[in-house]
Amino acid sequence: MIKVRSVRERYEIQERCLKERLERIVPQAMEQSGADIWLHVSREYNEDPTFRALFPPMYPTARRLTILAFVKTEEGVRRFHVAMPDEDLERFYERYWVDWREEPQMAALQRLFEEYQPRTIAVDRSKNFAVADGLSAGCEALLLEGLDETWTSRMYADDVFPIKVMELRTPTEMELMPEVADVSYSILEEMYTSEVVKPGITTTQDLEFFMRQRAVDLGLEYWFEPTMDIERAGVDESRITGVIEPGDLLHCDFGIRYMNMMTDSQRLAYVARPGETEIPSELVDALAVNNRFQDIVCENMLPGRTGNEVFEASLAAAREEGIDAMLYSHPCNMYGHGPGPTIGLWSNQGSIPVVGDVRVDENTCWALELNVKAPAQGRDKCFIYTEETIMLDSEGVHYLHEGRDKITFIG
Known about the structure:
Blueprint: H1 7-32, E1 37-43, H2 51-54, E2 65-73, E3 76-82, E4 94-95, H3 105-116, E5 121-123, H4 137-146, H5 149-152, E6 155-157, H6 160-167, H7 171-191, H8 204-217, E7 221-222, E8 227-231, E9 249-254, E10 256-258, E11 261-262, E12 265-271, H9 281-300, H10 307-320, E13 324-327, E14 330-331, E15 364-376, E16 379-393, E17 396-399, E18 408-410
């Protein structure tokens, strides 16, 4: 059984990653942006989606109204918090609202603007990206009511900060992502065994609860409800549920959150018929086609390309090789469906305006999600659904866990 890190270790890692993010990634995002100040405003229990990227683990929610200001100066980016005193927060941010019992909070923020005279103030408002739309109507009203028009008129929506601050991985996160993937896949490997899967007895719902329970047992969160479905010879529908029978092709979808990092994975298993000792050759061949399409997509995930360009180039290459494929991959970072370039959608196999126009960057993590159709399971077009958690760095794409080229045999 795989072991996970203690809570103390996880907190230490998350704080190290936060320090790296604030010192490396935030300045990089500010350099790409035209903002003099990035303003982050969160209310308790209604936090901006970028909250988890900017605060230490011992500060799990906003305190009443928590404001951060990232200020571009000639010496670099200065980080202030305009919030009630907190020693955990003050290890990462300078406290600006010192006289908090006497001075109103908005007056302190106004004073900060007067000191630094920003020409442009970026706020998290967006109609295109959920993660960049964190300024609530209530918080915006507080800013408009509490600040001079001199400053509110300089506020504008800038998607760069929320996307890049959450999409780009720190050195420690890049180093630890294989470990996070190992923990996630270990649950699937434990599930796809004859001890757990009993043909004629075990149901797809049983296996869904197995994934949930094992994640909870390990002290982890699953960020979406795990799913399990079946492709069965003689049944036209590609994803059915119910009691598992010999000859079924099992397909799961599962992802965890661990140390503030996400996975998103789909793996296949075959339930043997009486007398079978290996996977039917047609399924082996179908998975090989799927693996080839995975590699095609990875070959086209080049930094500087947009998500739409990766999508179009990958499907064009698949068509040239006679592969019948669908592509719907997405960034996987602090959210499972994370900020960054969209590469196709299940519901739209075409170029996606705006969200598909974001460019691919190095030091990012992804869910390589796709399917192909190939002859198997008694029909001409059997769906082979897969999803791998992958990482892109300066050397290219890396699969984070072995086994993508195998269908687990349950005898």
